[in-house]
Amino acid sequence: MTPSRRPPGPGPDRPGESDFLAAYARRRNEFDLPAVTADAVLLTVRDGQLSVLLVQRAEHPYRGYWALPGGFVGPDEPADAAALRRLAEETGVAAVPEHLEQLRTYDAPGRDPRMRVFSIAYLGLLPGLSDPAPGAQAAAARFWPLDTLPLDAADTLAFDHAQIIADGVERARAKLEYTSLATAFVDEPFSVGDLRRVYEAVWGEKLHPANFRRKVLATPGFVVPTGDQAAVGRGAGAALYRRGTSTTLQPAILRRRPTR
Amino acid sequence: MTPSRRPPGPGPDRPGESDFLAAYARRRNEFDLPAVTADAVLLTVRDGQLSVLLVQRAEHPYRGYWALPGGFVGPDEPADAAALRRLAEETGVAAVPEHLEQLRTYDAPGRDPRMRVFSIAYLGLLPGLSDPAPGAQAAAARFWPLDTLPLDAADTLAFDHAQIIADGVERARAKLEYTSLATAFVDEPFSVGDLRRVYEAVWGEKLHPANFRRKVLATPGFVVPTGDQAAVGRGAGAALYRRGTSTTLQPAILRRRPTR
DNA sequence: GTAATAGTGTCTATAAGACAGTATCCG
DNA sequence: CGGATACTGTCTTATAGACACTATTAC
Fold first, then answer.
1. What is the phi/psi pair of residue B122, to 5°?
2. Lowest mean pLDDT among A96-110, B22-36, B182-196
3. How many Å from the CA of B238 to C1' of D1?
4. Alpha-carbon gap, residue A243 to B166, rounded angstroms
5. Greatest Cα pair distance in chain A
6. Residues A13-64: tens digit of each pLDDT
7. Amino acid B259: pLDDT
8. Which of A32, A46, A242, B119 is the most buried (most CB within 10 A)?
9. How far is A246 from chain B (nearest CA, A)?
10. Residue A147 CA to nucleotide D13 C1', Å?
11. Residues of chain B with pLDDT > 90: what percent?
12. Sign of the C-alpha dihedral, residues B149, A78, A107, A3?
């Protein structure tokens, strides 16, 4: 199935949805207690493009819309465990991300039409994967290159998920500078070129290969040589590396700043 | 009253507390729904010491313990508004902090003995203030210099608030490097020396006055000269500045890194 | 051959750290 | 006067960015 970018209906208030909204509103009015969900922004680099894992919702509200995998947090369940559980249930991605951190919590009243919902968003990074298989609770699941996502038109993704994705991408972009996060996007072993292509995909800019190489190898604990050489592709065989032990980079690998 | 560092009782499970716990447990067992609170880590620099605003709890659980100001979020209330509301109610601090941002959400099951509580923590920065007046719902309220807080012994503050404070301080320390956050700690107008003393208090290290001055004035948009001179204290009258328009600093004001 | 990649070396500009030295004010 | 603060200037070192150049491989 080729997923459509636009959802099938005109908006979240479509025929058949009013019953759901009424039931949820009843629950809320009786108890006046909130619900808490956990959502995952799972990023990967595929074909040189920074991409995010989305699912197409099978239920109201926002049925047919693309959304982040996630769902309600169980009564005694840690929120990060809930995000990983829903990830596996909805997309079949059982691999634990190479990196998972809390992004922030989205709390605006009205962000969910059913009731007050607090969503704890997590940011996860994965090496390139095969295509995910949609689970029972989602109509479809796939990685979307960020360039093809209309992030500035919030009504094309469910809830406020466009904003959550934008925040997650900005967090990832910033952390590539001063942490070793980029290595979470590649499988071991990897070449300096592989790592540079991660930076180029996440930052959306070309980097100078010679200078990048010098900076990576001059940063202690970033990468560790395996001694092996890559099976050659185009050009000379590249030396291969594993992830180093440092989590923070000193000196940092800085982005180009806008000229003042 | 001189607040004691140690709470009066042996722990959160003291006589008189079981009734409260039972009532809350009932609420939770019936509906199995969580509660959401908003807590504020409010930092300021007083007498050259980085300090945090705490209240002494008047109710169970953790009665008598020092805790962050905060409380339950209203059904239609944004969480940041709840944090500011509770701040005013408990400490009398009505001033809107010069800077307020979401820190992170604390969700560990069992972090509150009553029921599952998700706490959205906020980080706020204030210029030096007069002593706060405790509100009706707190036994006492005051700024605590961080040096005097036993942050590594979690049981001396209520809930997991020692960890929340540690995270907030670390966030503030990191953001001084690449943002103009330090100016939120001083009243306008201020001198370069005032700003340097903020950095020294937050980072807990002495900075080289001449080099610091050169870096601050070379960073565009950080501070704007007023043209005035400070009423002299010890030494020459210092030039005065207001906050600039930049929020991110380029180049950054970097901390000393541990020698590798 | 060309094109693309890996890798080395070098030059320049910028910024950080260290430090010398002057001016001004308080006590 | 001594001690503290404000401010200027200079020297060294580390890093970033730009670029030239060689080597290797696919096509």
1. -115, 150
2. B22-36
3. 24
4. 29
5. 69
6. 444 455 555 555 555 544 556 799 999 999 999 999 999 999 998 888 888 8
7. 47
8. B119
9. 12
10. 42
11. 64
12. positive
Residue B102 pLDDT exceeds 70: yes
- pTM of the shown model: 0.88
Determine whether the interchain pair B31/A35 forms a contact, defined as Cβ–Cβ distance below 8 Å: no
Phi, psi of A118 (to 5 degrees): -95, 125
Rounded CA gap, B50 and A118, in Å? 32
Beta carbons within 8 Å of B220's beta carbon, 6+ residues apart: A260, B244, B246, B250
DSSP reduced 3-state for B35: strand
Rounded Cα–Cα distance for residues A63 and A113 (Å): 13
Confidence of residue A127 (pLDDT cuts 50, 70, 90): very high
Residue A115 has φ and ψ, to the nearest 5°, of: -170, 180
Cβ A5 to strand D below 7 Å: no
Q: Which of A181, A37, A156 is nearest to A101 (CA)?
A: A181
Q: What is the CA B255 to C1' C19 distance in angstroms?
A: 20
Torsion of CA A205, A164, B166, A247, to 10 degrees: -30
What span, in angstroms and rounded, lies between the C-alpha atoms of A34 and B74? Answer: 9
**How far is residue A115's CA from residue A109's CA, in Å, rounded to a whole number?**
8
Q: Which residue has the tokens 């979307």?
A: A144
- Closest-CA distance, A255 to chain B, in angstroms, reads 12
Per-residue pLDDT reduced to its tens digit, B155-208 = 589 999 999 999 999 999 999 999 999 999 999 999 999 999 999 999 999 999
Residue A14 confidence (pLDDT): 45
Q: Give per-residue pLDDT as tens, A223-237.
A: 999 999 888 777 778
Helix B209-218 to helix B192-203 angle, to the nearest 10 degrees? 110
Question: In Å, what is the CA distance from B176 to each residue of B162, B183, B259?
Answer: 21, 9, 20
